[in-house]
Backbone:
């Protein structure tokens, strides 16, 4: 029990809890203000919930979209636990279960009816609604993916499809999203369904873009006779690791040393300022890296204490 509760006492836990709550608040706002008014169905659990709400309403059963979202996410979490195992942790449980209540929160704070002004949606155009929704949702997803969390829902369904139908995870998301979009034929005309399918595709592109932007790092390679000064600055001032390689110049035949480091954009700028201020002559190449695993992500404070 102590082992299970120990993460609750860390600053990292509470910081990520706040980030997840804010991220899901943005997702809930996107659903409430840009999907629900015009019944725009994108390939997501929220879109499926809108379809089910309309079908139930036609049968004389009133059930709010937020409540259906909560029910579907609860079912998917149970299925994920039974069919996939312990891969989904408390983060997925938390984000999936708070989406419905957060939609209710936005409804109480500012009902979308006050923003319609005689139109059928907030932007009064399905394409603008689509773009606004995808933009907000993609930003939210990218932020959550960065801290190893997700919005639940479609992500869970995609992983189940991935395991039992053996599609890769990207294809699984596409298949699950497309099936949900097609369910909109029961309540929407063909044009609106096509808009939803396009929105599902654009959402994937936006998520990749924002994820790469948030995770972007610089891989810097520096060849210089003053490599030890550069190493000292990277290790002790920037508090980053680096690698040093011995090499031979193909043109001059001289033996040189190359310093290679992975840095954030701010650290990259600081390193350049250091080289300029110290008058260090160097040959430098740099490229963007969007995915890093392992010790680089260790907290810099912990790295400094270990030294």
Residues:
């Amino acid at each position: 029990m102590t082992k299970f509760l120990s993460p609750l006492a860390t600053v990292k836990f509470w910081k990520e809890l706040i980030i997840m709550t804010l991220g899901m608040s943005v997702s809930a706002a996107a659903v409430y203000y840009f999907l629900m008014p015009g019944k725009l169905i994108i390939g997501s659990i929220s879109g499926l919930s809108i379809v089910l709400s309309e079908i139930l309403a036609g049968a004389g059963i009133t059930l709010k979209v937020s409540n259906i979202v909560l029910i579907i996410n609860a079912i998917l979490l149970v299925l994920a636990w039974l069919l996939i195992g312990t891969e989904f942790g408390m983060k997925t449980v938390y984000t999936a279960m708070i989406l419905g209540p957060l939609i209710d929160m936005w409804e109480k704070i500012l009902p979308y009816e006050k923003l319609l002004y005689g139109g059928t949606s907030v932007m009064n155009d399905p394409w603008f609604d689509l773009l606004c929704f995808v933009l907000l949702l993609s930003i939210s997803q990218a932020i959550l993916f960065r801290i190893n969390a997700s919005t639940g829902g479609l992500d869970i369904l995609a992983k189940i499809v991935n395991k039992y139908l053996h599609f890769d995870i990207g294809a699984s998301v596409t298949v699950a999203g497309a099936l949900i979009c097609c369910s909109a034929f029961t309540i929407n005309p063909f044009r609106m369904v096509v808009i939803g399918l396009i929105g599902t595709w654009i959402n994937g592109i936006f998520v990749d873009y924002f994820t790469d932007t948030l995770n972007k790092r610089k891989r810097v390679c520096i060849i210089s006779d003053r490599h030890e000064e550069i190493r000292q600055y990277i290790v002790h001032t920037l508090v980053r690791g680096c690698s040093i390689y011995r090499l031979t110049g193909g043109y001059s035949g001289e033996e040189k040393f190359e310093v290679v480091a992975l840095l954030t954009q701010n650290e990259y700028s600081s390193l350049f300022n250091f080289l300029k201020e110290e008058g260090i002559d160097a040959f430098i190449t740099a490229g963007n890296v969007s995915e890093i695993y392992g010790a680089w992500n260790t907290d810099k404070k912990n790295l400094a204490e270990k030294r």
About this structure: The mean pLDDT is 79. Residues 8-214 form one domain.
